[in-house]
Design a protein that fits this description.
Chain lengths: 105, 358, 380
Amino acid sequence: MCLAIPGKVEEIAEENGLRMGRVNFGGVVKRVCLDYVPEIAVGDYTIVHVGFALQKIDEEEAEKTLALFREMGVLEEELADGDEAFARAAGKPSSSCPDGSCSTP
Amino acid sequence: MGESLKAGAPDFSNWSCPLPLVGYPAIVMGHGGGGKLGNELVEHLFLPAFRNAALENLGDAAVLDLGGARLAMSTDSFVVQPLFFPGGSIGELAVNGTVNDLAVSGAAPRFLSASFILEEGFPLAQLAAIVEAMAQAAATAGVQIVTGDTKVVERGHGDGCYINTAGIGVLREGIEVGPHRARAGDAVLVSGTIGDHGMAIMSVREGLEFESQIRSDCAALNGMIAEVLDAAGAEVHAMRDPTRGGLASTLNEIAQASGVGIAIDEASVPVRGEVQSACELLGLDPVYVANEGKAVFFVAPEAAETVLAVLRAHPLGRDAARIGQVTAEHPRMLVARTAMGANRVIPTQIGEQLPRIC
Amino acid sequence: MKYLTEFRNGEIAQRMAREIHAIATRPWKIMEVCGGQTHSIIRNGIDQMLPAGIEMIHGPGCPVCVTPLELIDKALKIAAQPGVIFCSFGDMLRVPGTEGDLFQVKGAGGDVRVVYSPLDAVELAVKNPEKQVVFFGVGFETTAPANAMSVHVAKRRGLKNFSLLVSHVLVPPAIAAILESPGNRVQGFLLAGHVCSVMGYWEYPPLAEKYKVPLVVTGFEPLDLLDGIRRTVIQLEAGRHEVENAYERIVTFEGNRAAQKLLGEVFEVTDRAWRGIGVIPKSGWRLSQAYREFDAEERFQIQGIRTQESALCRAGDVLRGAIKPAECAAFGKECTPRHPLGATMVSSEGACAAYFNYGRFLSAADLASAGSGLTGVARG
C-alpha cells in the first residue's frame, strides 16, 4: 500500500471548512487536503497520499540521509579495482544502448 | 454488419473457434485498452471470422494488391473522452491516427473517409470545432477527406461524438515494413518522449484531474517517416506508432510477431519530467501510456545513426533516442535494464492501466 | 522530482548492495510488509542485487489482496444497484469476487468510477443529490486518515447520500499474527514507512521485544529499501532486535497526531477477516458509533452473499510468506493476471502479480544470464 509522493506546497486556502492546498509534484499541480499538517507553510515539502498531505518532509533529515548514502561504500570501491562487473554496473551507462555499441549522444 | 446484428442476438452455440473466449461473457472497458484483452478479441473472434492473408499480418494497415497498384488501407475509431483536451481534440486524433497507421506501414497516405456517430443534443459549435480541427489536420498531413457519413443516436447512447476514419495510401516501392520483420541486431529507436498524450487526457479526466503543462503530442508523422525512408530505405524493417497500450504494448507486439526478444535500457527512454511526475502521482508506468505523435523504428544497426539524425532534424523528432535493440535471447519478451542495473520483463498489460494507491 | 529521484540513484544503489554483500555472513529471511515496497523491490530488481542468502519474503501488506471476499461480493452487489455511484481506487477494479469484479459490474451498466481521493467521492455526492454515492474505503493506516476525513466532511455537511464501505486493516496485529504462526520463517521486518508516517512507530518496541525480531521503518525508493535491508541485516548479524527508523525524513516516533486524533473519533478497533489468512483479532477498523450512519454495509443491508474462493488459489500461503508465488501449482497456468484466481494476482502490488509481471516467471538466473549486454548484478 501507500503510494505517497513528495510535493511542494504552493498555495494554501480554506475550502468548505477544509484546509486545502495546491501542491506541486515536479511540475504537476494537484489540490491536496492539508488538514492533517496544520503546521505546513507555503514552500514546505510534504508527502501526499490519495490527495492528503500526511507529513511535512524534514528537509534537513533528507539531506543528511542523502549525504550518508553518497558516502556509503565509496572508499571500498576505490580499493576494489579488479572487480570489472561491479564497476561497470555501478557506473552510469556510457551509451544509450545496452551493449555499448552505439556512440554516446 | 450493423443490420444483421439488429436482427436478433447472434447464436454462438455452434460456433467453433480454436480457443474459446474466456473470462468475460461481455465486453468490458479493458477490451478497448490496447492490451491482452483487446488482442484476444482480435485473435479469437475477428480473425477466425474474417480469415484472410491481408488481415492476418495484423499490421497497423492492410497491404493490398489492387490490379498491380500496391495500396495500404487502415481504419480507426475515436471514442476519446473528453473530446477536447490540452493539445488537441478528437478531430486531430481521427485524422492523424489513420494517417500514422498508413505511414508506419510504409505508405504515403492519400485519402480518408470520415464517419460520425453523434449523440442527440450534441452542440453544433463543438462539432464545428472538431470538423475545423480535422480540416486543418488533413491539410497539414497532405491528405483529403473524400467521403463520409453521419448518424445520430438517441440522447444517452453515445459520448457526444464518435468518429471513424478509414484511409488509403500508396505503398512506397522497395519498402517492406511490418511487425514481423524485426531481426536480431536491429536497433530500436523512438521518435520522442513517451506518455504525453495519455497523461494529457488523464489530467482532465473527472476524478483524476490535475494542473500541468502536459499537452497531447497528437501529430501526423507521414512527413517525418518519409524522410526516414528516403534516408534508410530497406534498412528500416519495422515501424509502429505506440498508441493505446503505449510503448510497452507496441514493442511486445513486434517481439511476438517477429519471434524475437527486445532489450531496452530504461534510462534511454525519453520521458518529459512532467509526464513522469504525473505518472508517479497516479501510480502509472509511462511505458504503458498512450502516444499519438510518436513512432518506433526497428532499423538495421548500420543505419541507426543516420535515422536518428534524420529524426532529430525534424520538428516532430527532436527528442528521438536509441532505446535498445533486438536480440535472439529471451524471444518474444521485452526486457528492460533498470536504473539499478537489474533486468525486468515488461509484459503486455491486461486491459487499460488504472491509477493505483498502493 | 525532489526528494524522490535522488533516492533512485543507480550508482549509490550498487554501492549499498555491495555493503550488504560485505556484511552478510549467514542466510536471513526478511519480510517487507507493505505491498508498495514489494512492488518497488521487484520493479527495480532490488532482490536481484542482494546476496543469495538474503531472502525477501513478501508480506500481506496489500489491502486490496486481504480485503475479505465477502466484502468484495457486497461491493459488487451495491455497485450493481441502480441509483448508486460506486467510487473506488483503481486497484480494486479487477479484484475477483465470487462472481466477477467491479469492471464487469461497470460493463453491465453499474456506475463504477475510479477516483484519486475519497474527497472526490464526497464531491460527487454533493453534485448528485439524487444518487447514493458509496466509497470503497480499503487500506492500511496510511489511507485511513483520508477515508476518515471523507465521512467527517460528509457528516459536517449533513450529506444523506454518502457512505463508506469500510475494510481497514492494521499492521501491528498482522506482524504479530505472522510471528505467531507455526512454521514462521521471518526473522526481521521492514516496516511500512507510510503507515508509520501516520501512526509513528511507538507500537513496535513491544513486538520487537516479545518476538526478538529487528523491525526497521523503511521507505519505498530503491535507496530507502536497500538501507532498510542493510540495517536489518546488521541487526541480525549482531543478534540485536530493536526498532530502527530508516525513513527519518518522513517518519517520527509519535507519528501524525492530528491524523491519529480524527482516526480515534471516526474509527474503532474490530476483528477483521483477512482474505486468504483468516480472522485476526483486533486487526481492523470499522466506523465508530458516532459515524455508523455512514457505513455502507448497514445502509444497504446486502443479504444472500455466498462466497466461494477458488479451490486452487493459495493466496493465503503467499500472503503469509509460506510460499513464493512461483511455488503455487496454479501460478502462470490457471492463474495469471489475465485470469486471476485470487487477489494477489490482480493487485499491481500483490506478490503474485508482481512476480508474474516483472518476469519472475523466469527465474532470476535466466534473466541474469540473458546476454545482449544486459548484465544483472546478481553475484550470488
